[in-house]
Amino acid sequence: MKEKLEEITGVSGVRTAFIYFNDGEVVFNSAPQGFDKETFEEIAKDVVQMTAIFDRLATPITEYDLKFDNGRVIAYTQHNYTLIILCEPGVSLAMLRLTVNVAIADMEADKKFQKRVGKIETTRRSFLVRSNMDPESWSLVETVS
Amino acid sequence: MSSVLTGNLAYLEVINILKLLSSGSRDGKLILQKEDQREIGEIYLKGGKIVHAVCDTYLGEPAFNELILWRSGKFAFEPDATTNQQTIDKDTQQLLNEGAQFYQAWERIRHTIPSFNIKFKKTGQPPPPNVKLKGRDWEVLNLFESGEVSVSEAAQKLNMRDLDIAGIIHALIEAGVVAAGSLAQPVKKETLNENFFKNLENELIQLMGPVASIIIDDVVESFGEDRKSFPRDKVAGLVESISNEIYDPAKQVTFQQYMLKQIKSL
């Protein structure tokens, strides 16, 4: 799994990549300065919550590209894990997508990975808990429910 | 909803497609797709009137002005597609006329500034008396105090669009206060060799049969390029676009795995 993350971070313009399993485990290869496990978790939870909201709207989202002044967060949501990539604004998207498609296919063909993912019982829906959300996000959840 | 009008932007300019749809009093959505970055833009028409445009983070006229400059990629018109958004109030005829002028202006700029990465420098000459620089012009000119600057760098520093900066630098060049920098000669772009296309075609033939060659040529053409001079920096976009033509997901991944190795070995 880590070597697949390494391949992704090898794409020009990628700062780091990590996998967030819905049960809370974060797997990353190397963290850039200023990032730690907690920061990764925070980013990932936001993405999973957003995905869960879109699931409720029956418009499932599998790829996010969130643009900020100094970077981009690109996320690929799978059934019970999310691959999150932090990049420079000008990252080569085509090269990144090719690398990610191949990496995800390789990981999902790996029995060890399948076993790990198969153990996860936490659904995205369970991330939409009032106590875990700020009032604005909760109000959004209530609106779409 | 199916599209009734589809084509390649290398052969038909966006502004002319819009003129055609507008004169036919059409309702619907024109979808534009850039091949290399998979960027998508949309322009909605209601009774031939352009009412809404969206592209990346731009809406309305800024999005419209961005989209009319796209010169490669695909377009498709979905008749009867509607939107509740109205981000363009301007009279459509006026919008199209201004758009055509804007496009022509860009054509002129494009010859002076063929790439947003080419650097420019201050000539040290004062602006001629008949040229009055405005606030934004001075802001851009001041950037050259610290050395050579490209359009992209200036746009990033001033938080403006590349195109707007290019327009200002073009005017500054015409006024004689800015000139091409020492590294202004565009570097000759590296192209893909014959062997790359041979491997690509062989792999695709195995997955899709003899239609492979036609698919490759179509995709290459949609980039506004040909096989002999296809730029190496567009290779990932090319492979991605070709792989999108493979409908079997397993075959698609096989193709991507093989081509990724080819790209890395370039």
Task: Summarize the entry for a quick read.
The complex is a heterodimer of chains A (about 140) and B (about 270). Helices cover about 45% and strands about 20% of the residues of chain A. Chain A has about 140 residues and is of the alpha+beta class.
Walk me through this protein's architecture.
The complex is a heterodimer of chains A (145) and B (266). Chain A has 5 helices and 5 strands, in the order αββαβββααα. Chain A has 145 residues and is an alpha+beta fold. Chain A has a single domain (2-128), classed as 2-Layer Sandwich (Beta-Lactamase). In chain A, helix 1 (2-9) runs antiparallel to helix 3 (93-109). Chain A is globular, with a radius of gyration of 15 Å. The relative contact order of chain A is 0.19. Chain B is an alpha+beta fold and 266 residues long. Chain B folds into 3 domains: 5-90, no CATH class; 119-180, Arc Repressor Mutant, subunit A; 194-264. In chain B, the strands form 2 sheets. Chain B has a 6-stranded antiparallel sheet. A 3-stranded antiparallel sheet of chain B has the order 8-7-9. Chain B starts with a strand and ends with a helix.
